[in-house]
Write a structure and sequence with these properties.
Length: 75
């Protein structure tokens, strides 16, 4: 049984889906999910990521660098 000390903090990136709702991505694992609300997308992402991590554990202590970059105007 999991305890709060077993919890792992991961990164989530959320954006509005063109068809409605929200997309969510975890860059540490590459898992993705969708939901009608941000909260639903996050719940779905947590579930998908937990399932992924059962098969493919992450090395402890490694965190992605999340930043932005700019490209020239795209026509």
């Amino acid at each position: 049984m999991s305890t709060p000390t077993d919890a792992v903090e991961l990164t989530a990136i959320l954006w509005t889906a063109p068809e409605g709702g929200f997309n969510a991505l975890n860059p540490e694992t590459g898992t993705a999910a969708q939901g009608e609300t941000q909260a639903e997308a996050m719940r779905n992402l947590a579930e998908a990521t937990a399932l992924y991590l059962e098969e493919f554990p992450l090395p402890l202590g490694e965190r992605p660098v999340v930043t932005t970059f700019r490209i020239a105007d795209v026509a």
